Amino acid sequence: MASNVTDFTQDFAILNQRVNDEPLTYLDNAATAQKPQQVIDALTHFYQHDNANVHRGVHTLAERATEQYEAARAKVQHFINAAEPAEVIFTKGATDGLNLVASTYGEAHVQAGDEIVISIMEHHSNLIPWQQLALKKHATLKYIGLTADGELDLADAAKKITDKTKIVALTHASNVLGTITPLKQVAKLAHQHGAIIVGDGAQAAPHIKVDVQDLDVDFYAFSGHKMMGPTGIGALYGKRSLLDATDPYQYGGEMIDFVNLYDSTWTELPWKFEAGTQNIAGAIGLGAAVDYLEAVGMDQVAAHEQRLVDYLLPKMLDLDYLEIYGPHDPAKHTGVIAFNIKGIHPHDVATALDMEGVAVRAGHHCAQPLMKELHQVATARASFYLYNTQADADRLLNAIQEAKEFFSHGSVEAK
Amino acid sequence: MGLSKLNSLYREVILDHSDHPHHKHALADSTSTITLKNPTCGDVINLDVKLDATDHIADIGFTGDGCTISQSSASMMTDAVMGKSKEEALHMAKTFSDMVMGKEHPQADLDQLEDAAILSSIMQFPARIKCATLSWWALQRALMREEDQVTKED
Ligand SMILES: Cc1ncc(COP(=O)(O)O)c(C=O)c1O
């Protein structure tokens, strides 16, 4: 494979180990990504040298911690091309950000008879907050469907989004189908009808260049841990005009301006939405992950994954005992490949692959409505990232073949 | 290591049960019914139990989708508890969950599990223990629920 991406595995000590006596092939990146040494070092360095609470002290460490925390915010701002740092709110992750929007903006603007439009491919994190909001407000929840090859059906989106629609929430990349959705076009549709659009960037931000201004999304949520950052940190982008007009999510320290006995005023953005002591080290670690990805370049990250898909997907499609979900055209497929070996439960497949050192996910991928749509209870899923190689793709293919053989014959000769 | 380790899990008996599960059907006249879900994979089991007047399992059946392990475990469970009293069945369920967690048990208890005892090998595959225990949990819940109903009616 012609690749100008160099060997990244040296930055990821965790990848250099044997699992079940086989070299580890980590293909569960859609669940969470591994962390480069640079991110681990940033966390360690913070705790060893600079740890203090932010925005609270006049002492030197407090100053350093605050400076690094806000520098991380600026890194995230540039990473997604937000207009200003104040539009980036640190959260626990994508789930937290989506719930924030549903329970603040959604709570205030959705009324009985209104519509909320989402898609059938949503992760539960971008489905249940809207479903519950609709139930509570007696609003109608509508689902945009899929085209025959598993892409978002834009024509259906144009039908489902109406003047009654208040919120459209759509994933930017599917964690099952391996598709990038036309978020920008759907944002346009939403705006034409006076609705806002909320993007779920959990599977997109780690893998492709995201430009929230170009997409013209109103809110956009993603998680740090899927983009090589620590767990428990993520970011929510929101347009200033909307954030300013929205009430806080939680109340407490850090987010207040003046507290009187019977009322209070809120501090300015973004801190208005960051009540209590935040995951300071996590934010700094996320900043380090952004640095790492930017040093490679998001275009390079995407190109590397595309090369792997171009290599692997046709080979998987050649295996007639495999069922592949999502588009079969590699150009339309991200490094998330959901599949089943016909007649063998994905759980059994994943155990067999694990014995070969190949880590994949098996299950409903927190997308039960989509599983129903695909007429599957569960699937296996291999998902790739920057540090994966063609050799990893070959190991997956080989392990799939061995698993197929094993379950067809019921056993294998001991090696 | 490769797949040879799988041989200890996917033994012939287990594959037989999953290919041709016993008592895989719903009961029209069950006295207790339960639906349980394996949270990790979403597999679902519906279990129907029919207790007779003396609190013995007169009939039992299950439906639902699942992996080799959950299907064969359900099949072996229904074989083992058919005709047993509620007390005995609950004791067997306890034996089974203890067994897969690696706790020691008298051989007589293990013998009572019949084919199901072979699933002790699941210990080597911690991620799959829930697949094996799902049907036994369903049995426990179904029998306990039966108890609830009885006490309520009393
Ligand atoms: C598309 C999508 N949205 C949202 C989430 C939720 O992310 P988190 O669990 O980090 O909040 C995920 C994670 O699996 C995802 O794949």
TrEMBL record, chain B:
GO terms for biological process: iron-sulfur cluster assembly. This is NifU-like protein. It comes from Levilactobacillus acidifarinae DSM 19394 = JCM 15949. CDD domains: IscU_like (cd06664). PANTHER family: IRON-SULFUR CLUSTER ASSEMBLY ENZYME NIFU HOMOLOG. SUPFAM superfamilies: SufE/NifU. Residues 10-131 form the NIF system FeS cluster assembly NifU N-terminal domain. Pfam families: NifU_N. GO terms for molecular function: iron ion binding; iron-sulfur cluster binding. NCBIfam families: SUF_scaf_2. It comes from the Bacteria. Belongs to the NifU family.
